[in-house]
Amino acid sequence: MHQLKRLYYIYFGGTHKNQHFPYMLHGIIMLLMPNALYRRLLRKKLNVFKSLPEEEKKYVQERVDYYCRLEEGAKVSDINEHLPRIERPSKSVLVKDYKYKNKVGNTSYFFDTYEYMRYFSSHLKFLTIPGDVFYHLPSPAIVKSRPISDPSTPSNEVLLNLDKIRHFTWIKDPFKWEDKECRILFRGEITNKPRRQQFFDMWQDHPLCDLSDTSSMSLYDHLSSRYIMSLEGNDVASNLKWVMSSNSVAVMPRPTCETWYMEGKLIPNYHYVEIAPDYHDLIDRINYYEAHPEEAKAITQHAHEWIVQFQNKQREDLISLMVLDKYFRVTGQ
Description:
Blueprint: H1 2-11, H2 20-32, H3 35-47, H4 54-67, E1 86-87, E2 99-100, H5 107-117, E3 128-129, E4 141-143, E5 146-147, E6 157-159, H6 164-167, E7 181-187, H7 194-203, E8 209-212, H8 219-222, E9 225-229, H9 240-245, E10 249-252, E11 257-258, E12 273-274, H10 282-291, H11 293-308, H12 313-330
Parallel strand pairs: 3-4, 4-6, 7-8, 7-9, 9-10, 10-12
Antiparallel strand pairs: 1-2, 5-11
Helix pairs in contact: 4-12
């Protein structure tokens, strides 16, 4: 019976990662549609902002300004390219072998950029840096991640929701917090990731910890643990979104990088359990929440409230288009 329940939730019950086939199919269909159609719709889509209630306008504008903090008059570097076209670099029949023509990223970064860039003229110049950006850039660029810095200061790193097939996973947790085991779980790569390696070396032998340097465990099997570590690797912790959508508690040091998820705005011990950067207080922090279960369950509720704001597709589309519109306006285009 347990195995049947497990298989149901893994394949049908919403405790799995995003499916690649429908994502890729949607991306290919996008490429088949004429861009001229979308360019005619751009102004209409942006004008939706004017009809929003004042409170919603304020919220949307705050997110646009958070993601795009370019200094007025910033210039795009000469190394940027026009909107790249897609091509097959090899004879392989696998869809995943599609790459940018100018080799700037893999398929998910291309599709996630193209989804909104197709609304703008192909003569507009932009720079996009795929992969993990955990450093500051000398020129305005569209990125998935960036270092967290003072939101009142300019930043050349403009956030767009890139590689969301991997990072933006929401799950349906079939277990209540109180029905889970008091266990601290970590699964993930630690090779060439010194911060994770330090955590692993420090706590791998503790009886409360279940740690492994592999990511092969299903999301469903993660959910039997009350506490799941969300540790940054090169940039953000890729599991943070789905952990916060579960009834387990995310445990981590204060983040140093952020994405479209606005990790820099998360409140410690309100949206997640904060531990010290050197991890020394891990067990003390867990013992505290075991002694105060209502506070732990409140954290899961606050986490659920946080993710709701990213689940309104129409609003996310508007914010994305406004971010790019601001990028082109501020850079004088």
